[in-house]
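Hey L., structure's done. Input below.
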Amino acid sequence: MVIRPISLVSVLALSASAVSQNPYAQAVNPSSQQQPGVEKLAPVQVGEFIFHRTILPNGVRALAVQDTGETASVFVVIAAGNRDESPATSGLAHLTEHALYTGTPTTGADEHDRIVKQELGAESNAFTRDDYTLYYDHGIPADALQRVLEMEADRMANLTFDEAPVLHERERLRLEEKHTWRPSTTREEQLESAVYRREGYRVGLRDENGHTKAPGIELGPIKEFYQTYYRPDNAAVVVVTPDDPQRALRQIAKAFGEWKAPKMALPNRVGEGEPLGARSARFESELARDRVEFCWVVPPRAHKDSASLALLARMLDRRDTSAGDPFQVSYYERQGSGMFIIAATGENAYKELEALCKSLDETGVKAEEITNAVREERDRFLNLPLRARPYFSLAADMGRMAVYNEEQWIAGYHLRIDEAGKSSLGPDGKVRTDSAGVGAALKRWLNPKRRVIVHFAPSGDGVAAIELPEKTKDLAVYAQEAMEAGEYQKAVVAYTELLNRNPDKMNTVIYLYYLGSLHMDHKHYDEAIADFEKALKVVDYPAVRDALEEAERLRDDALGLRDK
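Output:
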């Protein structure tokens, strides 16, 4: 099991098929009231959901999808994130996100949140990722949709940049960084700084106090970032509505149609290019044991091998070391170059990883592994909820794809997964290693000449202490450090104690998710299932439900209860 913070695990791949070639993309009747100058695009369908699409004359990509219920949701995505910063401006994208709450000539500071949350009884928030920034208004009354869209369009185009509220948001961000930083955050940033040599994914290293450069950035760079990237031809708007999607598209056009595109071109992003060759990096850490990570720069999500890499990650995540400990495998799909990681812990971590790579080179993967991975990934994808939570919703994912003109990435993903699985096996049912499929992707991308080895070496006692920390925040750090160091028994004890301290709903779900993941990694499937079921009774998160289904499948396989 890949242990990550609870999120919508994005290991998808771009479909090479056009909508007309996708049997799941159904045509719909065009609206007779479409605005002049609006470009109508063919709809795309994922599972049961049809996303209707247009492009406004100013470049905004508008999407609308119908859902059951009485409320609507709005997702506004800007194609800019951490990747667009420099070493001197790390945190600037997140700081700009905060600045969007400082007010316009018609909506004062923090008024957007107040209106949505207090007047409309809905939810409003935003988050910044590597490739994009997303703003959402979730569960708003359907009859308030036009009002909310107009408020979103207003702040995207008309921030006043009054100094006092902007500096107030900067202080909020400083406190947020202080309270959310964990040692694992620094390790992730150190790893990316070692793996990437050119792309902006490498510039986010924080200082010893866990801060980016954002707390010291003045008003000018924030305004410049806003003016550079917050523009209609760099934005997508997705509406989930209980009403006619065509009406929702017209509402988007009415709200966002006057947003004027700047004359200047968007900055060019530097590509990673070919890796510089095998290399290594070593960092001291607070872990109790050595942690070694074999890393590879892999193609962007639009590449034809992305689906095979996603399947490969699922397969290798099932492999164990000679001591019976699980390898920890991650595949990060990105709009720029992605990253593939296989990690192990303990004094023999390097030898275990070398042995795994040697085995993959000599014998590859098994046909049964491919078949299982295809089924799991296809089922996971086609069962994505439309908007279970804004952070983990298909609608939000569609927005982050649409802003890069990659809606087909989602629309045909399940077909791409099927294709990768079929091309991996020959007519005899054996794994192919020539020019297609998982075997070929393995040979092409995960070879020693492209590998970056990152070693996190313990610098002190780490989590070796017998007594658990008294402060809950310190205990949470202890638990995560133990988990990443492979100290699984200590991690189980720590997460169990965290749950005994009556955490809030969010942390209850997170701790149960991690606890269940630890049990599943050690093949204690009944304990894992119990933890995941408890978490789902608190909040129905897609990632937890996926984990529950996976644990149930693995248990049934172990007991011989599932048909092959």
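The two ends are 21 Å apart (CA to CA). Residues 1-32 have pLDDT under 50 and may be disordered.

-- N.
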